[in-house]
Amino acid sequence: MDMRQEPRKLREEQETGLSGYAARSADSRGRLRDEPECSVRTCFERDVGRIIFSMDFRRMRHKTQVFFNPQSDHICTRMEHVISVNYIAGTIGRVLGLNLDLIEAIALGHDLGHAPFGHSGEKKLDSCLKNRDPALFFQHEMHGLRVVDHLALHHGRPGLNLTFEVRDGIASHCGETYDEYVLVPDRAKTPSDLEPLARLHGTPATLEGCVVRLADKIAYVGRDIEDAARAGLMEFDDLPQAIQSSLGRTNGEIINTLVMDIIQNSYGQDAIILSRERGDSMEELLRENVARIYSSDKIKRYEKMVDNVIEGLFEALMPLTVDPDKLLTSENRVLRGFCRFIQEREVPLDRLGPQHVVDYIAGMTDSFATKSFEDLYWF
Length: 379
Prior knowledge:
The chain is an all-alpha fold. It has helices spanning 7-14, 43-52, 55-59, 78-96, 100-109, 118-132, 140-151, 164-171, 194-199, 207-221, 223-230, 241-247, 251-266, 276-294, 297-317, 325-329, 333-344, 354-362, 366-377, and strands spanning 153-154, 157-158, 182-183, 272-273. It folds into two domains: 40-112 and 152-295, Hypothetical protein af1432, CATH 1.10.3210.10; 300-377, no CATH class. The strands form two sheets. Strands 1-2 form a two-stranded antiparallel ribbon. A hairpin with a 2-residue loop joins strand 1 and strand 2 (157-158).
C-alpha cells in the first residue's frame, strides 16, 4: 500500500475490483450539503459512522421488533434486527462483489424511522396525524429519511447529511411487500424522487439497496417465529410441511436456504433475484406469520395498550403547539423534554404542528414512551 496517497483514495481504488454493477464511493451522487471529504474514510464509511454514533441508532436497542417485553433479554429488538439484516445482506453482497460499506450503512440505518412499539406504534401515529389532517401520514420508511435529514443530531446540528445512495436505501427498504422476487435497481431515480417513490415503495437506486430490502424480510421471517414460540403462539413444527421442506425447519435453515438461493440466481446479474419456488415459499411463510403472530389475539390486546399510550402522548402534547409558551415554563418532565427536542432541532415555536409532536413521540423507546404516559396521566 502506497501511504503517500490519502487512505481514502486507496480505498476508492480498491473498489474498482468490485462488480461492474456495484456502487462506487467515488461516483456517489453526493450529500444534501457539500462538505470536505475525509482523508481516511470513503463517503459510505463516513455514513456508517454517523449512523452508529447517533442517539437515534442507540435507542433502537429499546424499541420493539414485534413483541413488547422489556423484562426479557431474548426477545428481538429493533437493534438486533438491523444487525441481522447487515450480516445477511453483507454475506450476499460479498459474494456478488457489491459495496459492503454501502450495504452496512443502509442496513444499520434502514429502521431509524420506526416508532416505539414497532408497527403497532406506527399505525397509531399515522391515525393520530390523519385525524388532524387527512393529508398527513406516518410511514416509517419516509420517517427514516426525515430522521437522517432533519432530526438526528450531528455535531449538535440537526441532520446527518448522508449520501444520496444511503438516503435512498433507507427510504426504499420496504420489508412488508411479500410478493417481490426480482429487484432491479432504479438508477434513474433523482433526489427529488426519494419521498414520493418511498411512499409508493419504489425500488432502491442501487443493487446494495436491493440486497438490504430482501435481507430485511429474510432476517425477520424466521426470527419472529422464535419469539412467537416464547410467547406460546406457534412453533416451527406448526408450519405447513411444504414450507418446512422448501425453506427449512429452523430460523438458521430458512436464512441459509434463502441466502444461497439469492446468490445462485443473482451472481453476475444486474438484479437481486429470488427464485420463484423459494419466493413463493417465503411469501407463504410470511402470510402464516401474519395469521398466527401479527393477527393473534395476544398482539391485538397488546395493540390496545399501544394505542392508549401513543394517543395519550399525542393528545397531551398537541395543545402546546398552539400555546408554546407553556413549554418554556412547564416543570413536567415530558413537556420539558419536548421543549428541548424542538430547540435542538431549531424549530421556531410559532411553527409547531402535529408533525413535530409525532417526531418527538416516534423517537421514543418503548419504555420511555410508557414512562412518559405515566408521568402525564398517573396520579
